[in-house]
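A quick aside before the break. I want you to see a complete sequence-to-structure record at least once, exactly as it would be stored in a machine-readable document. Don't worry about memorizing anything.
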Amino acid sequence: MDMLTISHFSKTYPGGKRAVDDLSLTVAPGEICGFIGHNGAGKTTTLRAVAGVMDFTEGTITIDGHDVRRDSTAAKRITAFLPDNPDLYDFLSGIQYLTFIADLYDIPRSERQARIAKYADAFELTGSLGSPIGSYSHGMKQKLALISALIRAPRLLILDEPFVGLDPVAAHLLKGYLHELCAAGGAVFFSTHVLEVAEKLCHRLAIIKGGRLVKSGPTEDIVGDSTLEDVFLELEGEKDA
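That is the input. The structure line, written in tokens, reads:
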């Protein structure tokens, strides 16, 4: 069974703007799938629908067999979604926020402590967990949001531009943790503008343009003897003849 199945998904906003048009793709367990496209191409709309935070009426989306509309609670319990600008509670301390997330997902106390320690130490955030989130820098907030997603040990991790705001060390750590999640049978579906990262990190790619999927498949099949940047620019009609 695929970890993520999007079948004929479309989304039209009030006023008639069709943000996504008849999108179908799959992500198997153990796969990292990069979702590529210009701003406004439909990436965030798709990610939000997959995560169950945006309603839709056309098509179906299932996560590990759970329909995100008909069985939304079950789908969300095995999913972690990190938007490009995650909303955090500035009045809470870092550890209070992580404890709140752990409570929401019924993570046993012994496991949550070990997971928080693992990721907070790796991202060098342990010494700041007692401070209010409002005092954190943008990069620290990004790391805290990532930790809150990783401690859930999700079956499907959905990320919208996760590498923005991360320093090189944190970005390297994140790549390792994505591989770790996949090695445990999970899957990752994420959008990025950093084509070099997508080309090196992803097992599968999906390129969207104007709300329609224009190319998808294994990374090596899409890139071939070229580069992802060349493929992307050619599809966008921006590559020099």
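Two observations worth writing down. The first helix runs from residue 43 to 51. The two ends are 42 Å apart (CA to CA). We'll return to this after the break.
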